[in-house]
Amino acid sequence: MKIGMISFAHIHASAYAHYLELHPEAEIAGIWDDDSTRGTEMAEKYNTDFYQDLAQLLAADIDAVVICSENVNHKQHVVAAAQAGKHILCEKPIATNIDDAKEMIDTCKQENVILQIAYPVRFSPVMQQVKQMIEAKEIGEVVAINGTNHGQMPGGWFIDKALSGGGAATDHIVHLLDVTRWLLQDEVKNIYAELDTKFHNIDVEDCGMVSIEMESGVIFTIDPSWSRPKVFPTWGDVTMEIIGTEGSLTVDAFKQHFLLYNDQAQNVQQLPWVDDMDQVLIADFIECVQMNRQPSITGEDGLRALEAVKGAYQAAAANRVVTLERIDV
Known about the structure:
With 329 residues, the protein is α/β, with parallel strands linked by helices. The protein has helices spanning 13-22, 36-45, 54-59, 74-83, 98-111, 125-135, 161-164, 168-184, 277-291, 299-318; strands at 2-6, 27-32, 50-51, 64-67, 87-91, 115-118, 142-148, 188-196, 207-214, 219-223, 239-244, 247-252, 257-262, 267-272, 322-323.
């Protein structure tokens, strides 16, 4: 299966390319990047061709693309790939505004191509186990969830609102929101948020607290802050405390790691020893295309997460609870 990479702007692009390279039934058949220096370097690294023109890559003999461009560019790249008949794995968030996300979904449906959104936390081994326990009612009925997705401030285009669509709220609400929708098969009803900039001298928010009422009545809080210092041994965390009527679960998606005291790099690093969720995401996408099945994480899933992000910004600006109105797709 031949796959093209569209942009290495996002920090996850290298991980996806690495696992495409390792997959026995896939190859990276070409790379396009608007930064020709970066694109050429990546093409050399992964022993493939660099395309100066995106249209030429999309006209090439490829089956699918992985899109890791800046958030604001997701729409144009997804639409172009869909119209060229290529299946798509798109980095999160799906887009920077609701209208763009809707157009992306509609175009992929019209062109009969797969649109999968990159929410790899669903594929974490611990989250798979948690889903089984919740579905088996091992903690009774879930009544509340407290989650964190802390991280280091990524810098670059991530803190340019015109390119990213926002700061920590845009970057980190979506992972926990998506995994909670998936765990509970539930949707957001009401949302309240307080967002601010406390840790860094940047023009977008770097911290906040988001409080959500799901349609089932489950209360769900998210701390999406870019609060991890540069010297922290890993980029951040994904944790959840899930409270049920008959017990509770404390979840740390990255707990299974060892510490490397690295004198060469002059730092301490957390290195995971479980299956890498990015690797499983890539394998799932390849299988999805090969079997022509519904993607595990759909464009609609991306839209629902984006709706919650936009609701959080609206609630923070108005200092009030916002009731989400979901768009039909």
